[in-house]
Amino acid sequence: MIEEGHGNLLTAEVEALVNTVNTVGVMGKGIALQFKRAFPANFRAYRAACARGEVRMGQVWTFDTGVLGSRRFILNFPTKRHWRGSSQLEDIAAGLDSLVEVVNQRAITSIAIPALGCGNGGLRWSEVRPLIEQAAERLPGVRVVIFPPEGAPPPAAMPNATPPPVLTPLRAVLLIAVARYLDRARLQEVREGISELEIQKLAYFLQVLGTPLRLAFNRGAYGPYAPSLGHVLVSLEGHYLSGIGDRSASVTQFAPINPLPDGLEAAEAVLRGEDEIVRRIGELLKLVDGFETPYSLELLATVHFASIQAPPTGSPAELAERVASWSLRKARMFTDKHVRVAAARLQEHELLPA
Question: Most buried one in 99, 202, 292, 353, CB count within 10 A?
Fold first, then answer.
């Protein structure tokens, strides 16, 4: 029996859930990240199986949660070899053959299946859905709930069974900086939350001001960008922050992120007595005063990053050229006047090369 499902697949009342995975042990984005949070034991077992070479294309790797009833089995379905790669229809077809075999062997009576390979894998739903339906027709008596690609559920609705990460002083300072920045931004306009782009720039300037966050910032499309910061935010999601979700949203969607009240309380407790760190938060807020938007923070951070590239320069004219040559997008967005305003703010705080 085939049904169409909507909403959150991870809470579907079925005996088995299908999770789309790669063969290298990474669940970093999309529905796989949702599964990683909701079923951490499955992730640990899957990662170990990948290390042993047991997770292969065309073969479903099954995890038994040991809980009788709904959501007992996680059927980890490889949709691509490497998380950076693309999915292939022939791999989906082979995997569905394996899925039918597993369902019959385990006597599974109900199963929820997502849009295999249609998210980060890049396949078209119009081509994948018939393959899933053909496989479902080979499972008479099994309730098969097919979830079309409708986007991720709200972050707050994503189950999270992971333990809270250790709240170090450096993570605490980031949380407090985000909260105080949001408080100031909301004095100027209605804000649902802070974007990940803004968090990246706040972390960048915290480090510039002397906070040893140990982040490596590269020249990104939207200014200085530290890939490892994304992993930190993912670990904080659901414990100290809400809004990161499964990272399937584009950075330019500015999905709202908010510190959780209990998380802020914990961060304040960690920072008691850390006067130097707290002082740097105050310096940060003065630096970005009046720049409390994604666009403005990108401008300020881009100008600073451009100024410290070899050879360092504090010349507004030279900085305008460097910003314009960064990308066509920046050349169109940031005028010479914008760059001069940002440079003046950086100079005021002695953050430009002499």
Answer: 99
- Three-class SS state of 120: coil
Give, as one character, the DSSP assignment of residue 156.
G
Task: Kindly report the average pLDDT of the chain as a whole number.
Answer: 95
What is the average per-residue pLDDT within 123-146? 97
Position 311 scores a pLDDT of 96
Together in a domain, 94 and 226: no
Q: What does the pLDDT look like over 173-201, one tens digit per residue?
A: 999 999 999 999 998 888 999 999 999 99
Residue 255 token pair: 């999905």
Measured between alpha carbons, how far is 343 from 354 in angstroms, rounded to an integer? 12
Q: Is the peptide bond before 316 cis (omega within 30 degrees of 0)?
A: no
Residues 85 and 195 in one domain: no
Paired sense of beta strands 143-146 and 2-4, if any: parallel
List of residues 6+ apart from 163 with CB closer than 8 A: none
In this prediction the pTM is 0.89
Please classify residue 297 by burial: count the beta carbons closer than 10 Å to its beta carbon, then call 0-12 exposed, 13-18 middle and 19+ buried: buried
For residue range 274-308, what is the model confidence (pLDDT) as tens digits? 899 999 999 999 999 999 999 999 999 999 999 99
Own/partner pairs for 308-317, CB < 8 Å, 24+ apart? 308/353, 312/353, 313/353, 314/343, 314/347, 314/352, 314/353, 314/354, 316/340, 316/343
On the question of pLDDT at 120 being above 90, the answer is: no
Phi, psi of 64 (to 5 degrees): -100, 115
Residues 211 and 282 in one domain: yes
Q: What secondary structure letter does DSSP report for 134?
A: H
46 against 1, higher pLDDT: 46
How far is CA 278 from each of CA 110, 142, 171, 218, 282, rounded to the nearest angstrom?
53, 58, 13, 26, 7
Kindly name the residue from 29, 80, 201, 330 that is annotated as catalytic: 80
Asked if 80 is an active-site residue, the reply is yes
Residue 54 identity (one-letter amino acid) = E
Tell me, yes or no, whether 140 and 272 share the same domain: no
Q: Which domain holds residue 339?
A: 169-348
Same domain, residue pair 308 and 266? yes
Domains held by the chain: number: 2
